[in-house]
Amino acid sequence: MTGNLIYVYCIAEALPRETGRFEARGVKFVVSGGFTVIVKLVSEDGFSEANFRQNVSDIQWLEKNAREHIEVILMVMEQGAVIPFKFGTIYQTEASLKQFVADYSASLAENFLNIRGKEEWSVKIYCDRKALNEKIDELSAEAAAMEVQIRASSPGKAFLLGRKKNELIENEIDRLCKRYGHEYFVEFKNLSESTKISNLIPKEFTGREDTMILNATFLVDKSRVAGFCSVADALRSKGRNTGISVEATGPWPPFSFISIKEKQ
Amino acid sequence: MYDNEIDRSKEITILELLDRVLNKGVIITGDVVISVADVDLVYLGLKLMLSSVETMEQLKSGQSIAGKNKQVNQAMQ
């Protein structure tokens, strides 16, 4: 469905080749000031401000359109660097879109310089607290010491110490999660140009049993992507024994590594 | 050649999807007539994820909304 609003996917440095693939999806190109803006005409029904607010609360509408957003950007990205826009950015006229490109051209150029030849990779690390709990005497000297003390104590004292140990275990698991998260982060950071740490996503939203302990994004030079993936594979195998699960995905459009500043 | 994990997986999970497209990317104010930058999409996204978890629970408990939520359900697995 077409309309009169201009929905922006991303900006590329050149007009993509094989435009037929894009046109089949209703995607159009606005060439302006040495950049190509990848857009689609959308209707007021979907994207007027009021309707948009309404529509995004429909999970199916949101998922369909968010997928479309990322798919188009990934198609453009196959051919070169892109500056991705946040989902749902709308311009009312081509003139105002072109004005934006003109006003921000220096910043756009600078961003392309930063992201060209690099890929965004996401790493989410989860920890199975139960698995850590089962191995806590191996993993924590303090927990092990308390276990020795418990075994040498009378039943009454052992009971009290046992309760104390449970508290200690929770703290030790927190500490271990933090430590593993940091250790794994550093492994990936060493292979990256730039990093961003995002908020951890709570269990009820991940739909997983284990707990997220790291949500990070890395900007990786293409020459180091293979190494980055090997590290992910190695850490995934290593983590399996300790209840740590490593999920690396990419390459994503560099959503996390662009910063657009208005011309001074 | 390295493995492209986005291509390898059949479908990007809705979690990864929303975590990226709703929270990040160029956010312009001023030039754009309609900007969603002021919608709290972080909150909204999480709320929606929660609702899709609920959908999944409903499906599990047999209140099937045949086919309609299949995609969401699969994505959450």
Largest sheet of chain B: none
CATH class of the largest domain in chain A: Alpha Beta
Strand composition percent of chain B:
under 5%
Broad structural category of chain A: alpha+beta
In angstroms, what is the radius of gyration of chain A?
A: 25 Å
Number of strands of chain B: 0
Helix content of chain A: 40-55%
Low-confidence region ranges of chain B: 1-10, 29-45, 62-77
Taking the sheet with the most strands of chain A, its summary is: 5 strands, antiparallel
Question: What's the order of the H and E elements of chain A?
Answer: EHEEHHHEEHHEHHHHEHEHE
User: What value does the Rg of chain B take, in angstroms?
Assistant: 16 Å
What is the fold-level CATH name, i.e. the topology of the largest domain in chain A?
Alpha-Beta Plaits
Distinct helical segment count of chain A: 12
Examine the secondary-structure arrangement and name the CATH architecture of the largest domain in chain A: 2-Layer Sandwich
Overall pLDDT of chain B: 50
What does this structure look like?
The complex is a heterodimer of chains A (264) and B (77). Chain A is an alpha+beta fold. Chain A has 2 domains: 5-116, no CATH class; 119-257, Alpha-Beta Plaits, CATH 3.30.70. Chain A is 50% helix and 23% strand. Chain A has helices at 19-23, 44-47, 49-55, 59-77, 94-103, 105-115, 129-134, 136-139, 141-151, 155-189, 203-206, 225-240, and strands spanning 5-12, 27-32, 35-42, 82-84, 90-91, 118-127, 194-197, 211-221, 244-252. In chain A, strands 1, 2, 3, 4 and 5 form a 5-stranded antiparallel sheet that branches. In chain A, strands 7-8-6-9 form a 4-stranded antiparallel sheet. In chain A, a hairpin with a 2-residue loop joins β2 and β3 (35-42). In chain A, α9 (141-151) packs antiparallel against α10 (155-189). In chain A, 37% of the residues are buried. The model of chain A has no long low-confidence stretch (mean pLDDT 91). Chain B is mainly α and 77 residues long. Chain B has one domain (5-76). Chain B has 4 helices and no strands. The model of chain B is unreliable at 1-10, 29-45 and 62-77 (pLDDT under 50). At the A-B interface, α3, α4, β5, α5 and α11 of A face α2, α3 and α4 of B.
